[in-house]
Amino acid sequence: MIDSLLNGLTTVFIPINLLILLIAVIIGFLGGAIPGISGLMLVVVLLPVTYGMDATSAFMLLTAIYAAAVFSGMITAILYRAPGTPESVTTVYDGYPMTQKGMAGRALGIGILSSTIGGVIGTIVLILLTPTLAQVALKFASPEYFALAIVALTVVASLSDGKLVFGFIGVGIGLFLSTIGIDPLTGTSRFTFGMAELSSGIDLVPVVIGMFAIAEVINRSGQKEVKKQKGVKNFKIKIFELPIIKKIRKTILRSSALGVGIGILPGIGPTTAAILAYSEEVRWSKTPEKFGKGAPEGIAAPEAANNSAAMGALVPLFALGIPGSATAAVILGAFIMHGMNPGPNLMMTDGPLVYAVFVGLLVVNVIVLILSKPFIHIFSKLLEIPYSIIGPLIIIFCTLGTFAIRNSMFDVLVMFLFGIIGFLLERMKFPVITIVLGIVLGLLVESEFRRSLELSSGDLSIFITRPISLILLIIAAVMVLFPIVKNQIKKRKYS
Amino acid sequence: MKRSNVMFIIIVYLFSIFFLFLTIQLPSIKEVSTTTGPATWPFTLLIFILIVNTIATILLILNKGNKKEKIENNNNKLKSVKEEIEKDIEEVSEEVSEEPITNRKKQYLFIIIFAGYLLLLYLLGFILSTLIFFMIFSYLLGMRNKVVLILSSTVATFAIYALFNNILNVPLP
Q1: CB contact under 8 A, B8 and A430
Q2: DSSP assignment, residue B30?
Q3: How many residue contacts between A and B have a Cβ separation below 8 Å?
C-alpha cells in the first residue's frame, strides 16, 4: 500500500494535477459557500465537462470539489445564518450567535480547524479501509452482486425522508427507466419507440442535472429575492487559539469518528452525520444549556462530522461500487461515464487512479486550510452578485454541459423534461434522489439478477443458498424494515 | 388530501399500465436463448410499482378518514403548548426574515421561456440564443438595471464561449 500511496503522491504532484486540485478547491469553495449551490450540484454540472479529461485528473477534480464544498458551506452559515450547503445546516445554531456577539472570526476559525481535521481523519480511514473491503469483495460473484445491489437500494429507506412509499415508487421508476434501451443480454430493443437516441437508454447525467440544478432554478424563479443581511464588518479569522483547541479537541475526534462511520453506511451522508454529531454532543454534554448561544463545540461537532462523513462516503464507492451518499452516487455515474467498472475490482483494474485520488484528497484538505482565510475575505464581497445573474449562468452551464456529453440536443431535452419533473416532484416533497438511485443501480441489479439465474439454470434459491448473498439479503431486509418499525414505536410512544 | 399527491398516484398508474402493455409485447422467454427474457425484469418492476402505488392509494384514503380524529387530539395538546410557543415567537420574530412566497405563474413562465431558449439554441446556435436569453432569464429573476443586463449577458456569453470552445475543446450547439 505504501508503494501505491507514493505512486499516488507522484501523480498528484504533477503540475497539471496540482493545478486541477487548486482549481477544484476554488470551485468547491465558491459553490459550497453560495447558498443554493451545493457540492452535489457542482459535481453534477461539471460531470459532462470532465468527459474530455484524462480519467485520473477528472476524478481528482470531482472528489476535490466534493471535499471543498462540504467545507465551505459553513461560511455563510456562520456569517449570514444561511447554510451554503445542506451539510452545514446545524452549524448555524452556534455559529450565527457567535457572529452576533462579534466573534465571527473565532467561529470561522473553529469551523476551519474542525473541518480540516475531520477531513483528514476521514481520508485516512478511506485509505486504510478501502483495500481491505476490496479484498473481501473479490469473493463476490453474480448472486452476491445482486444481493449487494439490493442492499444499496435499501438506502431508499433512509433517503425517502419519511415518505417510504414514495421512496419505493421512486426507486421502482428509476429502475424501470434504466431498462429503456437495448437489452444487454439478448439484444432486443426495449421501449425505444423507434428513436435511435433512446437505444442506449436514458443517460444519467441529464436526469440528475435536470432534477436538481434545473429544478432548483425554476423554483427560485418564483421566489422573492432574499434581502441582504446586515453588513458584516471586517474581522480577523483566528484558527489556532490554544485555549479553544483544548476545549474542542475531544469533540472533534468524537465527531470525526461518528462522521466516518455514518458516511461509510450507504445512503446516509454528511448532512445526516452533521445533524447526528451535533445532537450527540448536546446529549452527552455536562452543560447542554450553552448550545445554541455560541458554544465552540456546537460548531466543531457538525463541521468535523460532515467532512469526515464526506470522505467516508467514498469508502463503499471505491471498495464496492456502492455510493455512500447522493454526491457519491453521481461520482459513480462518472466512473461509468469514463468507461470504468466501479465495484470490488476497481482497486485491481484502476489502482493507481484510486490512490491518486486518495492522496489528492489529503492534499486538498491542506490546500483548504491554507486558502480558507483569503477566500472568506474575498467571498464576503462576491456575495453581492444577485441570483438574477447566477441563475442564468447555472442554466447555461447545465445546458452546455449536458449537450457536451454526446453532442446531442436530445440529452438537453431529457434534462429539460426531468427539470420540470424534478421541480414538480420537489413541490410534493417527493424524494427525487430515489429515482436517481434507481437509475444508477438499475443496470447492475438487472444484469446480475439475470446472470445469477443463468448460473443456476433458473433456480431462484441460488440467492439464499450462497452464504454471502444470504447475509446481504438479510441486511437489506433489516435496513428496510428498521425505519418502519422505528416509526411504529415512535407513534405508539406519543399516543 | 393533497391534490398533487392524487395527481401523482394517478400518473404513476397510467405510466405503469402503459408500459406494462408494451412489456407484454416484448419477446417472451420461449423466443430467446437466455433463461430470463428481456421482458422479465421490466415486468417485475412494473408490478412492483403498481403494488406500492396501490399501497400509497390505500394510505391516502386511510389518512383522509383519520384526519378528524387527529385534529381533535392535536387541539388538546396544542392548548398546553401554546403559551410556550408564544414566548418563543417574541424572541425569534426579530431575527427571522420574510417567508418566501412562491409565485407559481412566474415559475411556469420560466419553464416556457427555457423551452424557447432550447428551441432557439437548436435553430440559431449558441452565441445568439444565449445573448438574448441571458437577458431574459436575468430579467425574470429580478434584475432590472438595463446596463447590467446587457453587460452581464455579453460578458457571460463570450466568456463561456471562450471557456468551452477554446479551453475545454467542447463543441457547442
Answers
A1: yes
A2: G
A3: 178
A416: nearest CA in chain B?
B115
> Would you call A392 and B137 a contact, using CB atoms and an 8 Å cutoff?
yes
Q: How far apart are CA B105 and CA B111, in angstroms?
A: 10
Q: Which residue in the set A81, A188, A397 is minimally distant from B26, CB to CB? A: A188
Q: If you average pLDDT over residues A71-92, what whole number do you get? A: 76
- A186 contacts B110? CB cut-off 8 A: no
- Which three cell numbers, joined as nine digits, stand for A137? 469483495
Report yes or no: A210 and A417 within 8 Å, Cβ to Cβ: yes
B85-102 mean pLDDT: 54
Q: A404–B142: do the CB atoms touch at under 8 Å? A: no
Condensed to tens digits (0 to 9), the pLDDT of residues A383-404 reads: 556 667 767 777 777 777 677 6
**What DSSP character marks residue B142?**
T
Please determine, for the modelled complex, whether the ipTM score is greater than 0.85. Answer: no
Q: How many residues does chain A have?
A: 495
The more confident residue out of A234 and A71 is: A71
A478-489 tens-digit pLDDT: 767 776 777 777
Taking CA atoms, what residue in A is nearest to B171? A404
Q: Report d(CA B160, CA B170) in Å as an integer.
A: 11
The partner residue sitting opposite A186, judged by closest CB among B38, B45, B105, is: B38
pTM of the model: 0.65
Does the distance separating the beta carbons of B32 and A188 come in below 8 Å? yes
Which residue has 485491481 as its cell numbers? A348
User: Chain A residues with CB inside 8 Å of B125's CB?
Assistant: none
